[in-house]
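Let us begin with a simple case.
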Amino acid sequence: MDTDFRRHRSILPVIIVVLSLSWSQVNGHWWSVATDPNIDKLEQGITSICEHFKGLSRNQEALCKRYHNHMSFVSEGAESGIQECQHQFSGHRWNCSTVEDSTVFGKVLNIGSKEIAFTYAIASAGVVHSIAKGCKSAELKSCGCSKKPRPTGLHNDWRWGGCGDDTDYAYGFAREFIDARERDNVSPRGQKAKARKAMNLHNNEAGRMAVVRGTRPACRCHGVSGSCSLKTCWFQVPDFRVIGDKLRQAHVNAIEMRMSKRGQIRPRKSGRGKPVLTDLIFIESSPDYCKRNSKTGVPGTRGRECNKNSSGDDGCGLLCCGRGFRRQDVTVVERCNCKFQWCCTVRCEKCRKTVVKHFCR
């Protein structure tokens, strides 16, 4: 590789193609690579497949061809982001539901809400997380173990030198690839389009920084009988659930922004401080997630399973939006009568039983 992503600079001055597109004119989203089976062809060096990924912008296609061996990690990161989004919002009126097209989340993406801010951040974080681990595992030949210096405060007797997750390289690549979609939109038309571009770029960065700033030293014990008289330490990215929890809290505290006459976004509430890198920002109020709306792409909560005994977001009271719920007997198949078999197996039967579930009207 002839470029060092650790410098956090623009890496494609030669092949950048200047386009003037509105955000809505770019069909699909790069997240769709998470479910595209053609990703496997890139590992065989068939770079022309990049042109058929409907969710990629022009510059992302160029990056895909140039760094085709990175795309399986981009796909893995996007999938991790989508799954984490669905975990964090499970049981809520908006549950990060997906659609079967290259937009992944459907028309709801067109609304600059705090929920969409989360999707941008968590997907961006997923790519950094995946690439950093790919570097450490030597699956990506253009990077390797982290080269970060020994952190202050580490015990003097502990050795610094284990193979750490390379978040510097991962951050640099993720920034170039993910933000390329917004950079393609050189001249957004109208204040809303300009504000949306700024919103997307900020939330992309918030996701990346959640991983970078969450990285901590990890150590392995050495010594007689694991006495930990000596340790070898390195930098390690946190479990992705930790990242998801952090960004979910940022969603709760997300800052509403507006576009000023000078073309800059500022907090809508006067006196609110400028957002920091790890804040999530949004420019539009969340839609009514209770009722199905084909125009906004909101699926509504009708037919969703709810918890009759919960007073939280997953409870039938909140989730069903006051419409009530219905009771239904459902037959489920479970493992039962499990027995240990010598030497090392457990054999179970399959049992059917009827359980009571509740669904929103």
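The second case is a distinct protein. As before, the sequence precedes its structure tokens.
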Amino acid sequence: MVDISIRSLYKDLEKSINDLKKDAGTVQRSRKVVEEALKKDEAFYGINTGFGILANKRISGDQLKQLQRNLILSHSVGTGDLIPKEISRLMLMLKIHALGIGYSGISMETFERFVYFIDHDLIPVVPEKGSVGASGDLAPLSHMSLPLLGFGSFWNEEGTDTIPADEVLKKHGLEPIDLQAKDGLSLINGTQLMSSYGAYVLEKTLHLLKVADLLGAMSLEALQGSIKPFDKRIHKIRPHNGQQTVAANVRYLLGKSEILESHRNCGKVQDPYSLRCIPQVHGASRDSIEHCVRVVETEINSVTDNPLVFQDGDIISGGNFHGQPLALVLDFAAIALAELASISERRTYLMLEGHDGLPELLMEETGINSGFMIPQYTAAALVSENKVLCHPASVDSIPTSLGQEDHVSMGSIGALKLLNVYKNVEQVLAIELFTAAQALDFRKPLKPGAGIEKAHQYIREHIAHADEDHFFKDEINQAVELLSDPSLIRDLDLK
């Protein structure tokens, strides 16, 4: 099996699924264990028993298919907004990968139908709420499985509308399938909602961390900040990896800076923390995100089913479905991301104050023009919203299944919040992006560091200098697109 990395997430998942299409021997061997177990006069949880608090109720052989069908239908009680198509696709891919590891015992027919779905961009529609992150993401994964039975819906090609599953299956010449013993349980036990949100956001965050360093360096240049706090010797004696990496990135970006040379001996003693402590703050977020990446990578390469099917014939009930490892790091990632926005907004504010030769509010004529005053309001609002969103979901628990499931992770709630925090951070950094570009314009004809100059020119190819008030919302949207575009930092040697 392919070991999935966040840094090459989609490529690795595609390779894993392609490998499974060529050789699904692990799935077949696991299924054989289940079929042999069914010949025995023993109780196997969820295979020939009820679920949750009903685990002690045996189910007769002629009702096993109905048991699995009922499981999917009864657990499809999700609510709220729909998970975006891209994340639903990731959920499906992660589920296929997990089943392919070979400890779930799913039938080949059910497994191959899921593979057919991904091959033909048939992405099930899944409501975002309903999981407590304990026995796996039961409700969301049930909705993801509904189209196997002819229920539920698929996304259209653009991901803008939904189509009833039965219509799509008919179009593809497919009949709903009969779930075999253990199939339903294999489908809905797992942490794929939490994992997909975590992987989706963290994959984007690894890029955003570099962008944050670039924007911090741009603002430092625009505000004629000092290079001294980025001296390698400072960070060598507090050797956190992230801190050292950020300091090195800023030193690199400020290389050959004419602006820096113009005020090198100006006598200023210290800059505000939002400039001076960029390595410490950005670096702490980097180190935190790296920890979160390691945990999520472990999770998406794990089996989170229950019961687990082993090649020696044992079928063992355990707790691998519990979302606690993810719940903690999803909260942690949100906090680490929020801090990038918090310090970014402070730098944006500094650039509006009119210090060090910059015009107040970054426009020559104010009064009739509000200048860059109001975008900072938006940044401040989003930073404050993140303070609410970053309250950890993982400190909560509530019993379910009549007390059988008496401690839950709430990781699903942390997952949904994480995406909202990420989107807010993007907006805040986007505002710093076009604010810093505006401020740098007033430093001409002096040039910033070579790396910053390259990025500034790229920004100016898409967003023009502002001489008067206009519809800033368009620029925020454009700046968000630039943030996510690899071209912004492609030619910069940032770590």
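Residues 197-488 form a domain with the Fumarase C; Chain A, domain 2 fold (CATH 1.20.200.10). The first strand starts at residue 79 and ends at 82.
Keep these points in mind for the review questions at the end of the chapter.
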